[in-house]
Write a structure and sequence with these properties.
- The protein is of the alpha/beta class and 407 residues long.
- The protein has 2 domains: 11-80 and 240-398, Alkaline Phosphatase, subunit A (3-Layer(aba) Sandwich), CATH 3.40.720; 88-234, Alpha-Beta Plaits, CATH 3.30.70.
- The protein is built from 13 helices and 14 strands.
- Strand 5 (146-147) and strand 6 (150-156) form a beta hairpin.
- Helix 4 packs across helix 8.
- The protein is globular.
- The two termini are 17 Å apart.
Length: 407
């Protein structure tokens, strides 16, 4: 339902902590998920005084990307607002996106050639260092400035990721983004050829195809990052700003560009984080605590290690967060939600459709139903299994920011 008519101007702050890819499945060697295997005394204490449940990011059986996963927990329908990764990466690295732009996220990759055909060996080029990424982007930018009257704008992200803008001479319609990813989502196979589903998209796809050919020539002598893959073509979307939708002043604490892009897309202010650790993010949160009503606090590595199948590393990140939890709890005048945007089971090495554990800590919970913050224990909680888009109304209610509905 529309919340605007019942929003209150005053109330508690909301701290939404997202451990990316948090949900998991039992690992064969342990029979436990990373949450179950981790030593989490602080979470275990907190969960007993919290409302718990699991959320469905998009719909039953649907595996979400990071964009839909986050849009859902921000309260935007990921089905209605289908947004490519490109816009998120571009906004996340600080690029201005215009209505003449087709944007896409790039991955540096490793390929071998069988004749003239590239075969993908590593879709992430060994997660090259960000400094190496910057060198390669400078090399590509110098060599490829324009194709068929379309300006090419490239900017580095973190590790193997970058953003690309194809700036056309005229505004683009939404149909221009209907181009398939070139990332085959597998190794040992060739990349996919970009093809458009509409006339406008096919015209853009031909420019993209020429760009990929030129980029492959420029990178051919590189040892690791000798190819690029593209994902998530998109044009500039229109969304109701978060502040208008919920009556909150929102801030984002994140390190990776894509998640900054997600936050910027809905109108959140991006806070400066000096460093890349959870501790660095926590310091940025504390420094800006008085300036915002709502904080989106993002932790990435739970997802990265899930995708790598690195069970012990995912356990370690969860334990690191647990040791820092008392510092989050020391922040006054807020309600806290801890969840993920989707599940990334180590055994699958990918995102999945499985429900995501969720905890809401506030004075207004039944509590006492879950003994630990794990997938199985959260299923016992008072929130049950619920759609991710219902999380924000719950948080607003716990923060005393919703009026009574009706007479």
């Amino acid at each position: 339902m529309e919340l605007k008519p019942i929003l209150k101007k005053q109330g508690k702050k909301i701290l939404l902590i997202v451990l990316d890819g948090l949900g998991d499945l039992p690992f064969p060697e342990t029979g436990k998920t990373p949450l179950e295997a981790a030593s989490t005394p602080n979470l275990d204490r907190l969960v007993k005084n919290s409302a718990t449940g699991v959320h469905i990011p998009v719909d039953y059986g649907i595996t979400p990307g990071s964009g839909p996963g986050h849009l859902g927990i921000f309260g935007y329908s990921p089905i209605k607002h289908q947004i490519g990764r490109g816009i998120l990466e571009a906004l996340g690295v600080g690029l201005e996106v215009k209505n003449t732009d087709l944007v896409v996220r790039g991955n540096f990759a490793t390929a071998k050639y069988e004749g003239e055909t590239p075969i993908i060996l590593d879709r992430r080029a060994g997660r090259i260092p960000t400094e190496e990424n910057k060198r390669l982007i400078a090399k590509l930018s110098e060599a490829i400035k324009e194709i068929d009257g379309v300006q090419i704008i490239l900017k580095s992200g973190m590790e193997h990721r970058f953003a690309a803008i194809f700036r056309f001479p005229e505004p683009l319609s939404p149909s221009a983004e209907k181009i398939n990813d070139t990332d085959p989502q597998a190794t040992g196979v060739p990349p996919l050829e970009p093809r458009g589903e509409t006339v406008e998209a096919e015209r853009a796809a031909q420019v993209v195809k020429k760009f990929l050919q030129k980029a492959a020539e420029v990178l051919k002598s590189e040892e690791k990052a000798n190819y690029i893959l593209l994902r998530g073509f998109s044009v500039k979307p229109e969304l109701t700003p978060f502040s208008e939708k919920y009556g909150l002043k929102p801030g984002c604490v994140a390190v990776y560009p894509m998640y900054k892009g997600l936050a910027r897309l809905v109108g959140m202010e991006i806070l400066e984080v000096k460093g890349s650790s959870i501790e660095d993010e926590l310091l940025a949160l504390k420094n800006s605590w008085e300036d915002f009503d709502f904080f989106f606090f993002h932790i990435k590595k739970t997802d990265s290690y899930g995708e790598d199948g690195a069970f012990e590393n995912k356990v370690r990140i969860i334990e690191t967060f647990d040791t820092l939890l008392p510092e989050f709890l020391s922040l006054s005048g807020c309600i806290i939600c801890i969840t993920g945007d989707h599940s990334t089971p180590c055994v699958m090495k990918s995102h999945s459709w499985h429900p995501v554990p969720t905890l809401i800590y506030s004075p207004y919970v039944l509590g006492g139903l879950s003994d630990r913050f794990t997938e199985r224990e959260c299923l016992k909680g008072e929130l049950g299994i619920f759609p991710a888009v219902k999380l924000m109304p719950l948080l607003l209610a716990h923060a005393e920011r919703l009026k009574k509905f009706g007479a």
